[in-house]
């Protein structure tokens, strides 16, 4: 017989078993996720450092590859061909010095840092010079959509550069190089198009384009270097050691100072771009709400983040001063404070709209009139076809008496006279027209009854009419 203490002991044992099972389950999940996301395995640190350092230098073939790839990218931007621009990015060696910059800061290598900065400057100079020479030709100075798209950075460009840099350094640090990944990252981060656009800005004396494109390139380059620095530190790449302790300390402080500036600048620029992007989204929401509530015909909008202004061009229904004041006060509700609302409209636009509506109504009336005339014409054409059919039927019923009499005289030589008339007959439900013939034979012919029957048959066959009567 079991006691209460035995039951309690069994219950405790079952609880411990359940706890052990849960502990084993969570341990298995933890092990799975660790194996899945662990990037320290398969990492070849020495080979990665060697590959990055080898790609820093700009000389001989690297320089010419860069020049030709910039030339191809400039052509692609000029003709708005995304495929050509992608092809140019695949062969561009621009990533080398940027990766070297992030690596050198991560391992305290002042010599590599100096080489990276010098070669990055050389690459930027070569790129801008090449694109400047290309776009200096007047034939190629149109501001295409592909060029305009590279004149200002966006917060999404920062995220792309950061994610691309992380993926690139992780791919490079593998023992087996992931070529497809590296090529894809070269396309995604898009370092070349901003440099080509900067050369276009110089060639056309458009310094706004030049400044915006260089800022976009700088943002991309900094966040790729920052991602490289972060992964190098996470993977614990070996730090360069110097024999002179004082020099080592000084270099470490210098590198730490440069890294702090880069990280601080990156965070600050990300914050500014985020604020600018949020401001534009709020402004677009505000404009959409204003148009919906007031019924204004807004045909153009300009949102200026730097000057904190929203300019809208109205055609048609105007926005009066009372409405303008109300919507200016509503800007705080849309998180766009201290912003001036500029409305460009003409007092005559309402009259113009009335004229447009009058012309539109007149056009609609004319179209309706043309449609009704077309319908009348179709009805008349149908009536003409019907009457023509009736006329054809009437023609078929007519007897060609002259021709018929001549044929009868040839076939029946004993005919002296032939008469023809139409007789109307009715049964009080319909009316029929019956052809009546009267024939007179020569006195020398005796058997006229037989001839009459034969002649009647001939008439019915000749005229295709079985209702013919013969007297």
Helix-strand pattern: HHHHHHHHHHHHEEHEHHEEHE
Helix share of residues?
Answer: 55-70%
Give unreliable regions as ranges. none
Shape call: elongated
Strand content: 5-15%
Number of strands: 6
Strand order of the largest sheet: 1-2-3
**Total DSSP helices:** 16
Q: How large is the radius of gyration?
A: 48 Å
- Judged by helices, strands and strand pairing, the structural class is mainly alpha
- The end-to-end distance, rounded to whole angstroms, is 137 Å
Mean pLDDT: 76
Note the main sheet.
3 strands, mixed
Description:
The protein has about 475 residues and is mainly alpha-helical. Among the domains are: about 45-240; about 360-395; about 400-470, no CATH class. It is about 70% helix and about 10% strand. It contains 16 helices and 6 strands. The strands form 2 sheets. A 3-stranded mixed β-sheet has the order 1-2-3, with helices on one face. Helix 16 (about 450-465) links the parallel strand 5 (about 430-440) and strand 6. The longest helix is centred in the middle third of the chain and has 50 residues, at about 245-295. The chain is elongated. It starts with a helix and ends with a strand. It comes from Wenyingzhuangia heitensis. Keywords: Membrane, Transmembrane, Transmembrane helix. Pfam families: DUF389.
